[in-house]
Amino acid sequence: MNENIGKRNRLLAEKVIKGLESRNMTAEFAENREEALKKALAFIPEGSVVGMGGCMSAHEIGLVEELKNKNYNFIDRDKETDKRTAMLKTYDADFFISSANAITEDGVIINIDGNSNRVSAIAQGPKKVLFIIGMNKVCCDSDAAMKRARSVAAPINAQRVGVATPCVETGSCIDCKSPDTICCQFLITRFSRHKDRIHVILVNEDLGF
């Protein structure tokens, strides 16, 4: 990474962390994927029940592989024949792993979901929520964050999961009502009623979409 970009990210992360802390959440900064993985594993005690939605950032830092192979009770929905049962188990997990479609400089987290298992678990259920968020997802305000979530993250995720939505063909959001739309539920996390339930690791790299 360019030295100036890295320096700017570190300074910006300080502002984001203060914003998150003002919203009853905790946060820390990792210089790279390796450091982010160490911080994530330090946050999740061995033996914990851990659930996850679709989180490319957790895959990219190597966290999912560690959860599968180390001493964790990882709810691997890809191995479950009954996806609904796996999702319901996640609501009672000790930890839920997620990323964000966007986050504002003052600590508001934006997520869009199709099946809504991810946003519902972020809002309620698991005892702790751990966000892995690359600095590429930081936006100046809520309007910019929502635009990023809808116009950048959603079309790429729609392509990734192979649905037939207009944005797969055009690369941009047209506010569709397609049966395949993945933009069914929008979650704006602006405050945590339960102090320190939500923890964010900001990573000084581009992660996810």
Question: Describe it for me?
Answer:
With 209 residues, this protein is of the alpha/beta class. It has a domain at 3-107 and 115-139 and 188-203: Rossmann fold (3-Layer(aba) Sandwich), CATH 3.40.50.10420. It is built from eight helices and ten strands. Strands 1-10-7-4-2-3 form a six-stranded parallel β-sheet. Strands 8-5-6-9 form a four-stranded mixed β-sheet, with helices on both faces. The chain is globular. The mean pLDDT is 96.
Shape: globular
Strand order across the largest sheet? 1-10-7-4-2-3
Count of distinct strands: 10
Radius of gyration (CA) equals 16 Å
The percent range for strand residues is 15-25%
Look at the structure and give the CATH class of one domain.
Alpha Beta
Averaging pLDDT over every residue, what do you get?
96
Q: Count the helices. How many? A: 8
Identify the quaternary structure here: single chain
Q: Write the CATH homologous superfamily of one domain.
A: NagB/RpiA/CoA transferase-like
- End-to-end gap: 18 Å
Helix content: 25-40%
Strand-pairing-aware structural class = alpha/beta
Briefly note the CATH topology name of one domain: Rossmann fold
Task: Please state the second-level CATH architecture of one domain.
Answer: 3-Layer(aba) Sandwich
Helix and strand arrangement:
Elements: H1 3-21, E1 26-30, H2 33-43, E2 49-52, H3 56-60, H4 63-69, E3 73-74, H5 83-90, E4 95-98, E5 102-104, E6 109-113, H6 117-123, E7 128-134, E8 138-139, H7 142-161, H8 166-170, E9 185-189, E10 198-203
List keywords for this structure.
209 residues, alpha/beta, Rossmann fold, 6-stranded parallel β-sheet, 4-stranded mixed β-sheet, 8 helices, 21% strand, globular
